[in-house]
Design a protein that fits this description.
single chain; about 300 residues; alpha/beta; Malonyl-Coenzyme A Acyl Carrier Protein, domain 2; Alpha-Beta Plaits; 2 domains; 4-stranded antiparallel sheet; 13 helices; 10 strands
Length: about 300
């Protein structure tokens, strides 16, 4: 079975999407439509901006979404997904590419999501850190042991790599305890705040209203969603899982394992970079994977 996966924040790079814009009129039309919807020329930042400019949350999230969705639209008849998933922000790209949401609705939600997350980050200083070389269960146990601060497992990226998220003090305390418990190392991430943690509750509340007001349809194939790591086709459930995603963990390791158990025979990454192909290798070294190419 063909599985398609869509990357999240961190996959961006200067110049992303420029080749698609210059070589495909249909892609150019979508990019220009996005500039209009967003109210600023995001293409200028994507094509000619610096890494720092691209790193602004209000730019990063729509940029990665745009690159992924435009690329998916150029795959033509070769795009026959039998299952799909997206890492965090990438879940929105997957839903649009697989027909559950319109391009315009998807872009508007991603833009609102980025701004709501930015606002939540400004309310309370918070952070994330990658934990390398420990079993997931040990990380969960250590986080649960920090009771006077907020810190939770946020991104289950692949076996031996789990990102924790929470208040500054919570992440620091947990990082110390995790190193003592045998982690190879803990790496502070240069992110705006504690994504996929209870500290994103103000953003979740803000985004919930927008998601509830958006029309969702049955996608062409099951979407393996972050919060459940299971394939979902029911529009109402897709909607609820998307709302829960902001404060819930990204269960990417479990998602890859579930897709493979359900019959995935190859994975195609649709969007900038090869981050997800790298993570897949840690889950199943033998599983074929590739980057999507326009038809």
């Amino acid at each position: 079975m063909n599985a398609y996966v869509f990357p999240g924040q961190g996959a961006q790079f200067p110049g992303m999407g420029k080749d698609l814009y210059e070589n495909y009129p249909a892609a150019k039309a979508l990019f220009e439509q996005a500039n209009e919807i967003l109210g600023f020329r995001i293409t200028d930042i994507m094509f000619d901006g610096t890494e720092e400019e691209l790193r602004q949350t209000k730019v990063t999230q729509p940029a990665i979404f745009l690159h992924s969705v435009v690329l998916a639209s150029l795959l033509g008849d070769s795009f026959k997904p039998e299952m799909a998933a997206g890492h965090s922000l990438g879940e929105f790209s997957a839903l649009v590419a697989c027909g559950s949401m319109s391009f315009v609705d998807g872009l508007q939600l991603v833009s609102k999501r980025a701004l709501a997350m930015q606002k939540a980050c400004e309310l309370q200083p918070s952070t994330m850190a990658a934990v390398l070389g420990l079993e997931d269960a040990v990380v969960e146990q250590v986080c649960a042991g920090v009771t006077d601060e907020i810190v939770v497992p946020a991104n289950y990226n692949c076996p031996g790599q789990l990102v924790i998220s929470g208040s500054m003090a919570g992440v620091e305390k947990a990082s110390e305890a995790l190193r003592a418990a045998g982690a190879l190392k803990t790496v502070p991430l240069s992110v705006g705040g504690a994504f996929h943690s209870p500290l994103m509750e103000p953003a979740r509340v803000e985004l919930e209203a927008a998601i509830r007001a958006t029309e969702f349809k049955t996608p062409v194939c099951p979407i393996y969603q972050n919060v459940t790591a299971k394939g979902v086709s029911d529009p109402a459930r897709i909607q609820q899982n998307l709302i829960d995603q902001l404060t819930g963990a990204v269960r990417w390791t479990q998602t890859m394992q579930q897709m493979i158990a359900d019959g995935a025979s190859s994975f195609t990454e649709v969007g900038p970079g090869k981050v997800l192909q790298g993570l897949l290798k840690k889950v199943d070294r033998q599983m074929p994977s590739s980057s999507a190419q326009p038809a």
